[in-house]
Structure formats: structure tokens, C-alpha cells
Automatic annotation (TrEMBL):
This is Probable membrane transporter protein. It is a multi-pass membrane protein. It is found in: Cell membrane. Keywords: Cell membrane, Membrane, Transmembrane, Transmembrane helix, Transport. GO terms for cellular component: plasma membrane. The chain crosses the membrane at residues 12-38, 44-67, 79-100, 106-130, 142-164, 176-195, 207-227, 239-261. Belongs to the 4-toluene sulfonate uptake permease (TSUP) (TC 2.A.102) family.
């Protein structure tokens, strides 16, 4: 067990601990999707595919913890529309990962673009909620956004923006909306186990790392509940989105921003 610590650089362990804590905080409902920074942040220190693989089991366990709070509160119709699209998107992501796995630069550019796209989405999200008109999107839209969500989720666990674009116009009750997204991503993450396993991204070595990081995720959840009770997530979100923007730029252009600022 102790040998595993020497197999990764210190920078990896720092980024991994921060990423897993943020996933836990996000699953506790504090911060608007701040867990999305996890894969880009870890991809700064290890190969992109390995970063995504390490986080998948942690996300699945966190999903099952969240499902307990929303057992029967979800929209069945939306799930029936979005999940087939998500499966198609996962298949496309499977091909993308397999085809470009030997080209780490392409993968990091892809993750960087997704990170910057998420920041852009979040910046416009508040305005979007204020002006968007309530309507019922058609099945074709659900399949499209479900496919895009499955694809981006497979690459970097960044599937929430496409899903929100489809769900937000419906003005669902908050508990139904949250429950639907939780069930959608739980199923999506479980399906993602198939391509990750086939690409040999899940193995004994990184599962040992997962076991080490898992308790940290639980601490993140507890911290998230505590933060929910005591403070606003406004400035916390801004800090994380700023960090995500810098991380995305670094991945996209292959530069070390910290070194430039020295």
C-alpha cells in the first residue's frame, strides 16, 4: 500500500486530494457544479485518461450516496429520453478516447476546451435562468443534449451543462429536477464503466489510489454540508471557476501559468 505513494509525484497527490474534496462538497449541494474541476486539475499532473479513470469510481459511490435523498423524486419521461442519447454519447467518447489515447496533447486540449466551455456556461447561467421561457423540449432535443452530455461526461465528467440546457426550460420542481439529474448521472457513470474497463483504464493499481482517496470524498461531503449551513457559495464558486479557467488555459495551450507569473 505504501509503495503507491512513491509511484506518483507530490503534485498529483495535492491535485487529487483537492479534486476529491471538491467532488464531495459538490455532491453535498454546496457550490454550483464545482466538482467539474476535478478531471482538468488532475490532468495537469497525470495522463488525462488516467485522471478520468481514477475519479469514476469515486463519482459512482458519491452518486449512490446522493440517490438515497431522492429515491422516488425524478422525472421518468426525461430519463427515458436522455439516457439513450447518453449511451450514444458514451459510445462516441469511447471511440475518441481509444483513437486519441496515444496523443496526450489532443486529449489535454479537449479537456481544456471543456473546462473553458463550462466556465462560459456558468457565467451565462444566472442570466439564462432569468430570461428563459418555460416550455417542453421535444424528444429530438432530449436525445441531442443527452448525447452531448454522455460524450463530455465520458471525456472529463463534465456532462452537466448539456443536461441543464435540456432540463431548465421545463421549470421542474426543485426536488424533481435535482433527483432527475442525480439519477441521470448515476446511470451514465455506471455505463461509462464499460468503455473504461475495455480500454484498460480501470486496474488494480489505480483502484488502490481510489481506496486511498475515497475517505477524503466523504470528508468533502461533510464539509459541504457544513458550508451549506454557515456561508454563501457565491465567492467560493467564483474562486473555483477562476481556478478552472486558469486550469483550462494551461491544458489548452500547454503552458505553466505558475512559472510565467514567477
Amino acid at each position: 500500500m505504501y509503495e503507491i505513494f512513491s509511484q506518483y509525484p507530490i503534485a498529483f497527490w495535492i491535485s487529487a486530494l483537492a479534486s476529491v474534496i471538491l467532488i464531495g462538497i459538490s455532491k453535498a449541494g454546496f457550490g454550483a457544479g464545482v466538482g467539474v474541476i476535478a478531471t482538468p486539475l488532475m490532468a495537469l499532473t497525470i495522463p488525462t485518461a488516467e485522471a478520468a479513470a481514477l475519479l469514476l469510481p469515486i463519482l459512482i459511490i458519491s452518486d449512490f450516496m446522493a440517490i438515497r435523498q431522492y429515491r422516488a423524486r425524478f422525472d421518468r419521461h426525461n430519463l427515458m429520453v436522455m439516457i439513450p442519447g447518453a449511451v450514444a454519447g458514451i459510445a462516441i467518447g469511447w471511440f475518441f478516447f481509444g483513437y486519441f489515447r496515444g496523443n496526450e496533447r489532443i486529449l489535454k486540449i479537449g479537456i481544456g476546451l471543456l473546462a473553458l466551455a463550462f466556465v462560459s456556461f456558468q457565467l451565462g447561467h444566472a442570466r439564462l435562468v432569468g430570461v428563459i421561457k418555460e416550455r417542453k423540449p421535444n424528444v429530438g432535443e432530449g436525445l441531442f443534449w443527452g448525447t452531448l452530455s454522455g460524450f463530455t461526461s465520458t471525456l472529463a465528467h463534465v456532462g452537466s451543462p448539456p443536461a441543464l440546457v435540456y432540463l431548465l426550460p421545463q421549470n421542474l420542481p426543485r426536488d424533481i429536477y435535482v433527483g432527475t439529474t442525480i439519477y441521470f448521472f448515476t446511470i451514465t457513470n455506471l455505463v461509462k464503466l464499460i468503455p473504461y474497463a475495455q480500454l484498460n483504464l480501470l486496474h488494480v493499481g489505480n483502484m488502490t489510489v481510489v481506496l486511498i482517496l475515497l475517505p477524503v470524498s466523504f470528508l468533502g461531503v461533510k464539509l459541504g454540508f457544513l458550508l451549506n449551513q454557515r456561508c454563501s457559495d457565491k465567492w467560493f464558486n467564483r474562486l473555483i471557476y477562476g481556478l478552472l479557467f486558469l486550469t483550462g488555459v494551461q491544458l489548452l495551450f500547454g503552458i505553466d501559468i505558475v512559472s510565467i507569473l514567477k
